[in-house]
What we know:
By secondary structure, the chain is of the alpha/beta class. About 45% of the residues lie in helices and about 15% in strands. It is built from 13 helices and ten strands. α11 links the parallel β9 and β10 (about 345). The protein is globular and about 65 Å long. Mean pLDDT is about 85; it is low at about 145-160 and about 370-375. Bound molecules: guanosine-5'-triphosphate (GTP) and magnesium ion (MG).
Amino acid sequence: MKKQATATVTYPKTLLLGVQTPEHYLTNMESYFEEFRNLARTNGVQNPDEMIVKIREIDPGYFLTRGKREEVKAFCDENDIEQVVVSEALSSRQAGNLGELLRCDIFDRTQLILEIFEKSAHTAEGKTQVAIAQLQHKKSRLAGKGVHYAQQSGSIGVRGGFGETAKEKETRHIEDSILQLKRHLAKLHKARETRRKQRLASKEPNICLIGYTNAGKSTILNILTNSNVLAEDKLFATLDTTTRALFIDGQKKGTISDTVGFIQQLPTRLIDAFKSTLSELDYADLLLQVVDVADPGWENHIRVVNEILTDLDVHTPMLYVFNKADKIDTTLLYGALERYQPHVVVSSLSKKSIAPLIEYIKNWNPTDEEETLESE
Length: 376
Ligand SMILES: Nc1nc2c(ncn2[C@@H]2O[C@H](COP(=O)(O)OP(=O)(O)OP(=O)(O)O)[C@@H](O)[C@H]2O)c(=O)[nH]1
Ligand SMILES: [Mg+2]
């Protein structure tokens, strides 16, 4: 029998460190840590150890307070941990100090999300936006005193080694690359702008699906347009905007677009990077905010999405689409759901179970809304 070559892939022994900080006073921690596990899983972290700590204040030098970092250090030493993934965003100084203390590579929330974004970007625009954000992050890590920044996921971080001049040289190189990418991005934006103008000139109404990551936006787009955009039980499966023609009962209603999912504590750099993509939302005629009502943190997710919309200065009319109603008894949520108007409750497992949404779109008339807004 022929001998088969087997490649053994070893993954660094990883600790997922969930940290509850005073900033989380409004957060549903169960949902938040589940989301953190999901982020790590989506990024390829396998069989991690897990530790959750609560801190009363954030230490400027180490992020973790003295007692907690000793606890984490003892755990890392005992379990031969090689890399620690932290649920929060750390400053470069904090990441560097913590890495030195724990003798582990440190990945923070920003890096985790950046790497997932990197894997999910498919269009030239998406890839360029992520590349810029990656370089900016790398630059900020270089700037930190005595910092060693980690390489791509799964690899062991580089230790020490940057002399001041090497560091400066590297920084300049990064700045040049960022500038080049930004120029390239500006060209891509121009092309998008032309496409958008064409669409606006055609006076075709556009509906945009927005919402928290994993809420079911792509699934709804697929069901409404009989297409097969990637929908996965993974965070940030969609990074690039997809627009499709929308027919309801054989009648063309306009176009419908799928967009990047939102997440709490989205690194500011990524919000900036995706602002242009999301600027589409202001030109849409209707937003469908898809919400996974089976997630215990659903109200917090709405808050996050609405805050980002306010930040983007988007004032488009919106329908809340409470999705995944098959997973829980929504009558228990009745009072809470009522607070969000207008809304429909659906499950996107079949065309039949999203009937309330189809009905809403069927009766929706974009010109009515414009008139109402003007008369206000
Ligand atoms: N049980 C159930 N699962 C659903 C429903 N809608 C979507 N899903 C599942 O939820 C997961 C996420 O769905 P997606 O459509 O990829 O979610 P998304 O909002 O596009 O996510 P991102 O692109 O990552 O932001 C997939 O595994 C879907 O099959 C639903 O109504 N009920
Ligand atoms: Mg999607």
